[in-house]
């Protein structure tokens, strides 16, 4: 492939590229001479928020349910295959790429264990191990959906704010470690 060398170079130069999220919104605006800059910024902010709310935020619950189901199935499969040698830490380590948040793993554990006390002990162990992973791998596993809700509230607040005289376009969004 002709561009594979360029792609490798870009991935080397920007190692965190796979963790970035970029959202672009294209909006057609009618020119209105009266307060054009102010109206344009209001419109861009409002439509951008509506887009994010519709496309991204509204699909989060669907993604949560799908992730819980996937984790539940994986957990049941591992428990069945491993039997008495099943270790939660090993399961988490092997599936950490699909554990987006502790709350998802907690629900999967609740779904997989018939005894509520065993489930509670298991998800408390899981939380403890995920906290260790956060320290070790510098990756967030706890309260990610709360961060997304906070992010949504901040964007909504910005979208409804009265614009200042200068125009600032918010074309690049990046979420790294809950920032």
Structural class: mainly alpha
Order of helices and strands: HHHHHHH
How many angstroms does the end-to-end distance come to? 37 Å
Low-confidence stretches: 165-179
Helical stretch tally = 7
Strand composition percent: under 5%
Largest sheet: none
Number of strands: 0
**Percentage of residues assigned to helices:** 55-70%
Determine the mean pLDDT.
Answer: 77
| Anisotropy-based shape | elongated
Rg, nearest Å: 22 Å
Brief write-up:
By secondary structure, this protein is mainly alpha-helical.
Give an overview of the whole structure.
The protein is mostly helical. It has a domain at 60-179. 62% of the residues lie in helices and 0% in strands. It has seven helices and no strands. α2 packs antiparallel against α7 (144-160), α3 crosses α5 and α5 (102-112) runs antiparallel to α6. It is elongated. 11% of the residues are buried.
Tags for this entry?
179 residues, mainly alpha, 7 helices, 62% helix
Task: Summarize the topology.
Blueprint: H1 4-13, H2 36-55, H3 60-82, H4 88-95, H5 102-112, H6 116-137, H7 144-160
